[in-house]
């Protein structure tokens, strides 16, 4: 291999010399990822791959010394390639080298539980439930790609954990406040990656204590996601007394492997992300959980670090679970849309934090708050934000309490009423503005949502617009209006849940609209899980004057980041029961067994404007049902070759796909495959004439089974299924069927939704359908 590369590089150098090209290193060099596709080299020969990377760089930069200084990572386990600091001309030159699939500029991506697991009915005492059948995830390794971990948290105790499996090849990488012995039988591996981040942002200064050059988590985000997925039981956990109860992860007996790729100062480098994928594949993880991504416009699947890394992981049998993004409730905002990824939407649980507001006329209204501080026993003057606008701010800006929009003299000592606006949707921004202006508290009127923002220093109560308008009417009718804040309580089981969270990104996918995204919904609103006391929130508590306050070790957080590890934990339970199932089969089981209704047998709704019944673009197959996923009856399975056909249908060239997969690929360009990919869903973005698509199901239930089709067609569409009965036996485990769609409409329509069910009397295998009829061209 090395000899071949040396000959190739020598040839390229001779050509360059004949053309008299001059290579110049520009000051504007940035990090580029030189992606070279699948790696088929034996593990014992990995050094040859790394040597070839250096040789290639040397031919461009003039010497091996320059190459060593330029290169940040050499990817040689799960796939081949490297990350290096290159100028644009150098990047263009190296893109033409044999074996180079693509040169990708480095990109900085962003990060996107007592009650939640009980709410999902994942309980140890249910003998036939997922936790019992899945042995609490015993025998599986969940890799968490995030901001690191706080290993001293009670959630990561190891006294009841088994020793790491023999196939585990990971390490416990040391660093600041984290040595090689910090790992234990729960946290069996930890690595950290910063070269790509520092090459873009500059050297990270850790002297101020806001970050650690090690796997230690200074943000809290990684600790939260890790404990949500696999934390052991911790009694009497709470967020400053709220949401008190037994905190635990979904797979408490699973091992954790930590890959710190994101930093508390902001962002995650794609070069670092690929290095973590490369190591995780080598280490031997079973599941990878990544609560991060980039906002639209989405990069192509051959340019997206998460899509590339996850492709190679899934090809090795590793399930990859990602957050769907927090840009809801707007359509076409979902991210991490590759069909081999499990993409997760966020939903609410049945817990709320009511807080009373007492007006000066003795009228009481109610909102929600997470404030647990003092100063709740007296009345404060209350004013409308736009009435005290700063001289350089307009009334609309002050109405939403945009940063710097309030007059500090007029705000001092007062409670401020602010209204959510198009330019300012966040109560977190509003309370920061009120605090900086010297206000005593905030009432923030907004679209109805169950997501509650945390306020540390001042009372902050979130209300809906009706309540906000009631308070505004009181202010306008009273000469000296005053208000008093009540104490926040924790109430469980009094609100209808789940609902798709307001912020949760929605489909269809803007990159591949024929692939249903998100795939599944899971709890992601006000989730209690372990936290890093080194985070800014933790330091606020430990620096408080009251000696009774302790550093924050558990925190309430919201986001699809919190929903993602719920699914990762459930995947661990599935892997324990069905260790040979492919990532596609596992995703199919999640999608086809999901719930469409709440505990009151009502259809699940989605927060938004307007509030509406949820559809597959809100929650994919529905809300996850952990107690059904291990027995789905039928699964829609796929292999790597299916994803290759998908990439061909996306018009990526043969060379790029061949390098990605590691073997020659000759694409037969057919966009029909986009609709015929064996996904557990069917999305038809443009239905003009009758259209037939096919799927294949694999029987994973009783050997002798007979399934009958039942259809709830999308509005305005007729649907027929052939055959309408599937009979399985010892010699027939797979069966193919065809679904024909015909539009009844003569006008162009929006997407409408329906379902195809396969039923055998005990299983209900439900496939989501989404169809948009378009006007035929005459």
TrEMBL record:
Peptidase S8/S53 domain segment(s): 137-597
Leader sequence residues: 1-17
InterPro entries (UniProt xref): Peptidase_S8/S53_dom (IPR000209), Peptidase_S8/S53_dom_sf (IPR036852), Peptidase_S8_Ser-AS (IPR023828), Peptidase_S8_subtilisin-rel (IPR015500), Peptidases_S8_3 (IPR034197), S8pro/Inhibitor_I9 (IPR010259), S8pro/Inhibitor_I9_sf (IPR037045), SBT (IPR045051)
Active site (catalytic residues): 146 (charge relay system), 221 (charge relay system), 561 (charge relay system)
Annotated Pfam families: fn3_6, Inhibitor_I9, Peptidase_S8
Residue intervals of the Subtilisin-like protease fibronectin type-III domain: 676-771
GO cellular component: apoplast
Function (record text): Required for arbuscular mycorrhiza (AM) development during AM symbiosis with AM fungi (e.g. Glomeromycota intraradices).
Protein name: Subtilisin-like protease SBT3.9 isoform X1
Taxonomic lineage from the root: Eukaryota, Viridiplantae, Streptophyta, Embryophyta, Tracheophyta
